[in-house]
Amino acid sequence: MKQSWNRWVGAGTAVMMAAALAAGCGNASEKPADSNTKAAAGKPFEGKSITLVTANHPWGEAIKPLLPEFEAATGMKVNIQSFFEDQLTQKLTVQFTSGSATPDVFMYRPLQEGKLFFKNGWVQPLDDYAKKDAAYDFNDFSKSAVGTATVDGKLAGIPIITEQEILYYRKDLLQKAGISVPKTIDELVAAVKKLHDPKNEMYGFVARGQRSPLVTQVSSFLYSEGGDFLKGDKATINTPEAVKAFTTYGTLLKDYGPPGVLNMSWPQAIGIFAQGKVAFYTDANSIYQNATDKEKSKVADQVGFAPFPAGKDGSKPYNITSWGLAMNSKAANKDAAWEFIKWATSKDVVLKTQQKGNPGARASVWDKPEGTTGFPAELVPVIKESAKGGVDHDRPTVISVGEARDAVGEIVQKVMAGDTNIQEVADKANQALQAIIDKDKTK
């Protein structure tokens, strides 16, 4: 297992971006200070301070009690602020637009606002910093996680929270019906049909049905059938592979989902699964506690986990960085900002935050028994298996993410509504997505 797990790791990034863009994202000539020189100075940042902005997220709560040890070791003061996700994006956008030098370091969602932030020159590329210090061991980070945080060949942030799409299922229902855990999408469809019993308020399948939220979860169906949202700068959501994936997902929800599924995002979907009314559920592994917490779930002891089932192209779940740490390109003291990022994403600190249930991106931490104590024993091998490969995005990688998600989600919702000409729907959606891509080139 360890040898195969180690193949997951890599430092690779994508193609190099144009020099003009690099210049727009900070002072490209600025190099990180040599760590040996700083170490010789004792507390190299005595009297310095940085501002850290986090989301109201378990990672933020896990890092706060660890800050005193960092401050004691470096002499640096860390001023921390926390906001809800939407407030965080709004605050950062306003401050960066005005050219503010604060916050120095901030949590961000690489696939939601990462490309916008990078293209506007608001984040400092971290390639030189991350690869300067051999002890930091950047090669220890998941290749897919790094890919998520990479824009135009430049490292825009460091992964702190990863997630993959997995299959949740009811162990007791499968055992009673003599059904094996589905390993393929076809097997999943067959099992869903067999366990669907709406007269007794038992539904075969649930997942996100809202137009925008469903896009991230249908993505694994798309990849596993051999498709993707884009190929280069061309929209590809009307290909045979895409139409098949969207039709499968939409039909599962239409024919075997609970009432109201059209309006469900993840809290509603996992909520009805936790009530014991659904046999199968696909979504991110990071929200598992909503199904296993006995105070929230009526079936906590009967929840099983499995890798995402394989399609024509195998099992290809998304394997992404959902949250990363980035540096403000206008930060007054970039070396101090990096010192914090380096510490917060070091092996020792990742171990501590992961023990609190925050799935990190370092393979070495997952390889340690103490690195998996924050997760159910049955979930750990599923996470490891899912993290070996997968795809580094779960939505179209464009600047106008919201518009793109609406275009894709429209196809699935038409399936759910019973539209019989999905190819025509997909063709129109593909034109809309292509227009978004072309528009983004002008930004």
UniProtKB/TrEMBL annotation:
Keyword Membrane: no
Signal peptide: 1-22
Keyword annotations from UniProtKB, A to Z: Signal
Pfam family, one: SBP_bac_1
InterPro entries named in the record: Bact_solute-bd_prot1 (IPR050490), SBP (IPR006059)
Keyword Transcription part of the UniProt annotation: no
The protein's name: ABC transporter substrate-binding protein
Species of provenance: Paenibacillus rigui
